[in-house]
Write a structure and sequence with these properties.
By secondary structure, the chain is an alpha/beta fold. 47% of the residues lie in helices and 17% in strands. InterPro entries: SsuA/THI5.
C-alpha cells in the first residue's frame, strides 16, 4: 500500500511539474509601423521576455480591420483596437474585452501661418480627415462644433484619405486643415505645423476632464480567464517597456530607428507624444467617462459608429478578478 501511495505521489508531482513548465503562448497581432513594435523591441532589449511566464508570438497584420478579422477567426489571441468596437461586439453576444494601451488621440493641425484660430474659422475651408467618415475624432469634433452652434458636416469641404497622403496635401496647401492620428500629427508639429487642438482637447471641451484611452489590448474574456497569469505578466512587461522608453534616453535610442525617420526633431516629437499618451490611472471614474463619450458619439452619424446600442456594454473593460 505504501509503495502505491509513493508511486501515486510521484506521478502527481511529475504531472504538476510538467504543467508548470508549459508556458502560455500569446499570439499578438502587430501592425508593422505601429508603436507596439517599439515596445516589443524594448522588451527584447531589456530581456523582459526571458523567464516571463509566457511565450510571445507576433503575427503581422496589414491594418486594424485585418487585426479584427484575425481575432475573430482565432488566428491571434490579442490585438490593439478601440473600446467602441469591443462594446459593439459585446452587444452582438461576443465576449471581447479591453485593457488600456494608449490615450494618444490625434489632433487638428494647420500650417503655422494659417489664419485658422478657432473651429468657426474652418467654415468654408477644406478639411482632411484621416480616419474616414466614422472616425471617432471627427465625430467628437462635430459634437464640439454643434455645441458652439456650428454644423461642421455642412459648413466645410471634407477630404478623406490615408494619413501620409493627407500630410502631403497639407504641405502642398491642397487642404487647409487636417484631423489626423497622433503619429502623423507629431511629424507635422516637428516640421512647424500648428496643432489647433488635440483629440484630448476636444474631449475636455466637451466636458469630459478624465483621461480616457483611445486604444487598448483587445482579447476574449474567456481566453483571459484561462490565461490570467500569462496575460498579467505580459501587461506588466509591456508597461515596464513603455516606462523605460520614456525615462531612458539610451533605451529610446535602441528603438529610434523604428520610427521610420532619421530626423531627430521628428523622433523627439514622436517620443513626446507617445509618452503623453500613457494611461496612468484607470478605474471606475475613467470608465464612467468613457460611457459619457460613448453617448456623445451615439448621437452622431445616425448611430453608424456605435450601432443601435445607446449604452456602453457591461464587460467592455477588463479587470482581473
Amino acid at each position: 500500500m505504501t509503495s502505491k501511495i509513493l508511486l501515486l505521489a510521484f506521478f502527481t508531482l511529475f504531472s504538476n511539474l510538467a504543467i508548470a513548465s508549459e508556458q502560455t503562448t500569446i499570439r499578438l497581432g502587430v501592425l508593422a509601423s505601429g508603436t507596439l513594435t517599439w515596445e516589443l523591441a524594448a522588451m527584447q532589449h531589456q530581456n523582459l521576455l526571458e523567464n516571463a511566464g509566457f511565450k510571445l508570438e507576433t503575427v503581422d497584420i496589414a491594418n486594424q480591420q485585418a487585426g479584427k478579422v484575425a481575432l475573430q477567426a482565432g488566428s491571434v489571441d490579442m490585438i490593439v483596437s478601440d473600446w467602441i468596437w469591443v462594446s459593439g461586439m459585446r452587444a452582438q453576444g461576443s465576449d471581447y474585452t479591453f485593457y488600456p494601451y494608449s490615450a494618444s488621440a490625434g489632433g487638428l493641425l494647420v500650417p503655422a501661418d494659417s489664419g485658422i484660430k478657432t473651429l468657426a474659422d474652418l467654415r468654408g475651408k477644406k478639411l482632411g480627415i484621416a480616419g474616414g467618415e466614422l472616425d471617432k475624432n471627427w465625430s467628437l469634433l462635430q459634437a464640439l462644433g454643434l455645441q458652439q452652434g456650428l454644423d461642421l458636416n455642412k459648413s466645410l469641404e471634407k477630404v478623406y484619405a490615408a494619413p501620409p497622403l493627407l500630410n502631403q496635401q497639407l504641405s502642398s496647401r491642397r487642404i487647409d486643415a487636417l484631423l489626423t492620428y497622433w503619429q502623423f500629427a507629431a511629424r507635422l508639429e516637428a516640421q512647424g505645423y500648428r496643432q489647433l487642438m488635440s483629440g484630448e482637447d476636444i474631449i475636455r471641451q466637451l466636458g469630459v476632464s478624465e483621461t480616457v484611452p483611445s486604444l487598448g489590448y483587445v482579447f476574449r474574456q474567456s481566453w483571459a480567464d484561462r490565461h490570467k497569469a500569462a496575460l498579467q505578466a505580459f501587461l506588466k512587461s509591456a508597461q515596464k517597456a513603455k516606462d523605460t522608453l520614456c525615462d531612458s534616453d539610451a533605451a529610446w535610442q535602441q528603438i529610434a530607428n523604428l520610427t521610420e525617420t532619421s530626423d531627430t526633431a521628428i523622433q523627439a516629437q514622436l517620443r513626446s507624444r507617445y509618452c503623453l499618451g500613457h494611461v496612468k490611472q484607470w478605474g471606475a471614474t475613467e470608465q464612467e467617462a468613457a460611457g459619457r463619450i460613448y453617448q456623445l458619439l451615439h448621437q452622431l452619424s445616425d448611430n453608424k459608429l456605435t450601432g443601435k446600442t445607446a449604452q456602453l456594454q457591461p464587460g467592455t473593460f477588463w479587470s482581473a478578478p
